[in-house]
């Protein structure tokens, strides 16, 4: 059941935190403090904005995105759970799982030690109980905790991803460092496994790669905006890097035909061979820690 705006405002509003009717009438959580601003939609527990004071927006949103009940938002940080990509056994199931299209429950909000705001949401995504914590501060910290109830009949496997879209000046003038020593699955080459390149990632065509067995921090160097975005992580053994380039952008109805130069995804994930196995009573946390600095 959806939480009404009046209830949310009366129960949880605090200085720097408010609840509003956002695009498409969907409920949004707005954060504005002395150090940062941000936004989250309760549908999908979907972070759609984060901007430390003094910086341009860090996350990217498509201007063609849907804002409709039961449809994913294009951009920001969609949550992929409990599978990544198409469902392996049910073609009619939603791509990337149901987490990004259901309404999550707002649980609590607190001020952080540095003057930011931390919020927590929860949802039941069968058979898992899931909590999502977001800290909007000088750093954006997101933790997805997935638990299997102790009374469940046996172990379960799941995939997850914090499918983060970053705003860039021009994809042709960015590079991603940190994954030089990781092997990857190249989805643009029949899912062939490629050995570590030893070089930073640069972009000249559609790119869709799953780097596996890596705990590495990624650094997105954006010469167009003179900044570097750092994506640290814990509880994640996969990193997905994606840009649709020209032709795929045209094929996606919720992605503007000419928006592909403006974004790149660096996704904190556990997918494929890095999927998580849980026994009843166990839980797993996947955390992304994002920061931004200006460079010369």
Q: Care to describe what's here?
A:
By secondary structure, this protein is mainly beta. It is built from two helices and 22 strands. It has helices at 5-12, 245-251, and strands spanning 17-21, 27-32, 36-41, 46-52, 79-80, 105-111, 117-125, 128-136, 140-147, 156-158, 160-162, 165-167, 174-177, 184-186, 192-194, 207-211, 218-222, 227-234, 238-243, 263-270, 276-278, 283-294. Strands 5, 11, 12, 14, 15, 16, 19 and 20 form an eight-stranded antiparallel sheet that branches. An eight-stranded antiparallel sheet has the order 6-7-8-9-22-18-17-13, with no helix packed on it. The longest helix has 8 residues, at 5-12. It is globular and about 50 Å long. It starts with a helix and ends with a strand. The model has no long low-confidence stretch (mean pLDDT 97).
Which secondary structure elements does this structure contain, and how are they paired or packed?
Blueprint: H1 5-12, E1 17-21, E2 27-32, E3 36-41, E4 46-52, E5 79-80, E6 105-111, E7 117-125, E8 128-136, E9 140-147, E10 156-158, E11 160-162, E12 165-167, E13 174-177, E14 184-186, E15 192-194, E16 207-211, E17 218-222, E18 227-234, E19 238-243, H2 245-251, E20 263-270, E21 276-278, E22 283-294
**pLDDT averaged residue by residue:** 97
The gross shape turns out to be globular
Report the strand count.
22
Q: Whole-Å distance between the termini?
A: 49 Å
The secondary-structure element order is: HEEEEEEEEEEEEEEEEEEEHEEE
* Low-confidence runs of at least 5 consecutive residues: none
Radius of gyration: 18 Å
How large is the count of helical segments? Answer: 2
Structural class: mainly beta
Helicity range: under 10%
Biggest sheet features: 8 strands, antiparallel
> Strand content of the residues, in percent?
35-45%
